[in-house]
Design a protein that fits this description.
4 helices
Length: about 60
């Protein structure tokens, strides 16, 4: 799946747990892009619930 990092960050910011996890990952990585890709690969893609939530977010973004 081709992930748009700015959209992914917008979705992550809506959830306190995900944003906290992202924040700590970003502290240990060199840049925001690496942190977002790591977050997607580690947490979102393997989880059907999170992946469905992200896909729903993308659909709602397209409708807007």
């Amino acid at each position: 799946m081709n992930v748009q990092l700015d959209t992914l960050l917008s979705w992550i910011k809506q959830d306190h747990y995900l944003y906290s996890a992202y924040h700590y990952i970003q502290l240990n990585m060199k840049n925001q892009e690496d942190a977002l890709r790591f977050m997607y690969d580690l947490y979102i893609h393997p989880s059907p619930i999170l992946l469905n939530g992200y896909q729903d977010f993308l659909l709602n973004e397209k409708k807007s």
